[in-house]
Amino acid sequence: MIGWIVLAILVVLVLWIIIIYNGLVTLKNQVQNAWKQIDVQLKRRHDLIPNLVNTVKGAMEFERETLEKVVEARAKAVGAATIPEKAGAENMLTQALGKLFALVENYPDLKSNQNILQLQEELTTTENQISFARQFYNDLVAQFNIKQEVFPSSIIASTFGFQKGEYFQIEEAAREVPKVDLSIK
């Protein structure tokens, strides 16, 4: 009789471990999938930027520095490897694009150019999609990290070597409103 009780306890314990482990694996894969969704949107944004820069390049001869900053920020964003590096580089790119869009408003020819308007609309849509994807990713990271920290799943997470997910955060510099000087020097 005691043997059956011990066996039942072992079976329940093994099932409990399997259920918690599978839940952690599921969340880990959902976090990875959410990151890939962000990556897809970032790639789309990176692909749109050269078109925008080429379209405005001729008309914005006085704003060469702004265009160079956009191109430089895009190159850093494309080359970033880790999530914190990518977040920082993407925030710099967002700031550079914000300044570029503000400057475009100062050029009547550009403001009325259909190509630029279409590219701005596509970039704005992409920015919104990136924002939603980041929020979804961070929500999943929070769930995954909480699951690893609460008892008893914390025991399983540490036993099987699960690593906490990294949030996609903005840097303090990205929180500041970009300063745009529209005066012609």
How is this structure best summarized?
With 185 residues, the protein is an all-alpha fold.
Layout of SSEs?
Elements: H1 2-57, H2 64-79, H3 83-104, H4 108-111, H5 114-149, H6 153-159, H7 172-175
Helix pairs in contact: 1-2, 1-5, 2-3
Describe this structure as you would to a colleague.
With 185 residues, this protein is mainly alpha-helical. It has one domain (45-175): de novo design (two linked rop proteins). The protein has 7 helices and no strands. It has helices at residues 2-57, 64-79, 83-104, 108-111, 114-149, 153-159, 172-175. α1 (2-57) runs antiparallel to α2. The longest helix is centred in the first third of the chain and has 56 residues, at 2-57. The termini are far apart. The model is unreliable at 180-185 (pLDDT under 50).
Give the CATH class. Answer: Mainly Alpha
Poorly predicted segments: 180-185
CATH fold category name: de novo design (two linked rop proteins)
User: What is the CA-CA span between the terminal residues?
Assistant: 93 Å
Write down how many β-strands occur, each being a DSSP E stretch of 2 or more residues: 0
At the fourth CATH level, what is the homologous superfamily?
LemA-like domain
Our Rg estimate from Cα atoms comes to 24 Å
How can the largest sheet be summarized? none
Count of individual helical segments:
7
Helix coverage percent: over 70%
Features:
de novo design (two linked rop proteins), mainly alpha, 185 residues, disordered C terminus
